[in-house]
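User: Structure with uridine-5'-diphosphate-xylopyranose, tokens only please.
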Amino acid sequence: MTKICCIGAGYVGGPTMAMIAKQCPDVQVNVVDINEKRIAAWQTDDLPIYEPGLLEVVQAARGRNLFFSTDVDQGIRDADIVFVSVNTPTKTFGEGAGCASDLQYWELCARRIQEVSTSDKIIVEKSTLPVRTAEAMERVLHSGDNPVHFEVLSNPEFLAEGTAIADLENPDRVLIGGHETPSGQKALQALVDIYAQWIPRERILTANVWSAELSKLTANAFLAQRVSSINAISALCEATEADVGEVAHAIGTDSRIGPKFLKASIGFGGSCFKKDILNLVYLCETYGLQAPADYWRQVVAMNEYQETRFVKTMLRSMFNTIAGKRIAILGFAFKADTGDTRESPAIRVCRELAGEHAQVVVSDPQAIENAKLEMPDLLDQIEFEEDPYIAVEGAHAVALLTEWKQYKELDFQRIYDSMAKPAFIFDGRNMLDHQALFDIGFEVYSIGKGRKTHLK
Ligand code: UDX
Ligand code: UDX
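Assistant:
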């Protein structure tokens, strides 16, 4: 029986390993993490992350061939294949601060693997890493006098939160990078054989290690760039009475452009896009490529502009003062169907509104606890209320920041009736029926579309 160990039971490691265990009953999967609380939660039905369909997948395999533990050393020692899926945040200190990846957790893992291993192993980079990290990883792994051989593969994960289970079950592709040596190719084949148990072989792409590493950064940079591109156009639409939805539809029907990832929004969030683009920027700079570095940096700059622009629109439309006004934030997660708030645009919006002395009340069906963790310094200034109807009571404005589908079904007449007048609504996701809201009496603002106002 092949034994897998995955270090890191987070948003990526947890769901990915649960899917491998479910699909491959002949593979034993041990997920290990230094965080005891997280591991304990994985052992219950109250999982540490919210992801539709995840519990069913975990339940199908847990206790059979899927195990969660804090015994990292034992997990490593027993394994034939070790996935490393620990977090690689943006560095906050020293050389490359604010841009480069902080590889300290990842290096600690490599050292641990090197120290405790007593048999040859395949090491799989699951975390997103800078290109050529495998080289450094190999140096660490083969330092010292442990005779064990480690073969490093890059197998970046492309799942998106909220749709992780569908993405894992039926991915566009799986990418595996290996060295072009006999042992590299043998290791690569071993991993291909695991994925091939449920994914058609033609969707399992193989590449050299550096291409695989760089493809992950590039994929995220391209996706984020599409969002920033349409958001840049949304600003122009607001100035010209063009409608960004119509523009997106018109360009998206060109098969060379395609319709996906063209939704203008308050901005992209999530743990990956900003971090990975900044990482790409840093890599370009490291290789002396200033123009490509500047090019990609603009994608992040445009995103920050979009978030700030949203708050400016709120402020201007509400007569240039929001001090003391109650503003209800509907949705704090960085996208729907997740409780994840990392890099959520809602963070900047709430901070800027609080900076204007507005009375901010945050509502979200899944992300209230994480929202509190994002703004520890503002807990006495910001209110948190899961029930949207209570959150909007007496509010001067509602700002919809996450596209939770239940927000579409809210009774907006009831909301309007309970709000202060004039009642403003700012749809940061362009998901509501703006004409219907206007007919109820709302002042309606959205992204990249003309405003609808009853005021002279
Ligand atoms: C992952 C990837 O690792 C990251 O590089 C990628 O860009 C996004 O997805 P994610 O799963 O979202 O990160 O991270 P997180 O939820 O923070 O999980 C990482 C886990 O690793 C944590 O539970 C943490 O406790 C664990 N960890 C970290 C260890 O077990 N050992 C360590 O030394 C460090
Ligand atoms: C992303 C990548 O999609 C995934 O392949 C990678 O493995 C991790 O990073 P994720 O961050 O989970 O996944 O979510 P994604 O669906 O890509 O959305 C990212 C952000 O962009 C969200 O804030 C979302 O609301 C925003 N977005 C997305 C838009 O504003 N408009 C769009 O058209 C699409």
